[in-house]
Specification:
single chain; alpha/beta; Rossmann fold; 4-stranded parallel β-sheet; two-stranded parallel sheet
Amino acid sequence: MAGASEGLGAAFAVQLAERGMSLVLVARRAQLLAELSERLTSEYEIEVRCVVLDLADPEFTAALADAVAGLDLGIVVYNAAFTPAGPFLEASDVEIEQAVDVNVRGPLLALRALVPSMGSRGKGAVVLMSSLSGLQGTPHISVYAASKAFNLILAEGLWYELRSHGIDIVACCAGAMRTPGYMRSFGRDVPGMLAPDEAARRTLDGLGRGPRLVPGHLNRMTAVLMGRLLARRTAVRLIGRSTRHLT
Ligand SMILES: NC(=O)c1ccc[n+]([C@@H]2O[C@H](COP(=O)([O-])OP(=O)(O)OC[C@H]3O[C@@H](n4cnc5c(N)ncnc54)[C@H](OP(=O)(O)O)[C@@H]3O)[C@@H](O)[C@H]2O)c1
């Protein structure tokens, strides 16, 4: 679980623990990981390893490889993300690089490090986090949205390529969820919000049903409207109005 300390990542961890899976939890905040680990090991008969590392660090795969040495990984979930919100012209290079490092290079490096052993065993699954914002340009979070499109397209291609190796991949195009990260970036509720545990459950249940899924009925309707029914420029304008408060 890459990005497991809170929000959707912690919800994935709980869902996987409920399914009887032992876990390797990765994030930067050791205290949150330790608390989650304690809760999971007391409630479920599983083992949990906590790995405190920064997924923006290009060297993180060495620590990750050490942490999973000797384990037969069943599923890799890359959930971590960074969201630079606000006008592109005012964003700092540091913010933009952080988004590329965590949201684009991070999942690539994690998959390159972890998926080959699944291929050798002919068994495994991967969840990559995309977003409804990755289905079209999303003003005021343009870099984040583009990084989520990257994860979607990567998952789709690998879904086809890795099927013959026994590996199933799904990209979760989540709509808004009330997570601590969401509230820090956006600060307000929107219609159709799913609880993180509901989104995690639906995503895991969706494995084996194709390369992309959109959890939640209203979110699926939004995806069809924005992706298929509206002209591209209309879709982008509409989204731009809904993210205008970020400027
Ligand atoms: N929330 C939404 O409404 C929404 C909607 C669509 C898609 N999504 C996607 O769903 C995923 C989870 O969203 P969320 O709202 O739960 O995110 P979040 O609250 O911001 O949490 C992200 C998790 O990733 C970890 N993380 C972030 N940067 C990291 C880094 N550099 N190194 C290691 N761990 C890092 C965080 O832990 P530490 O800070 O402890 O490192 C945290 O556990 C993201 O991929 C997001 O794009 C979310």
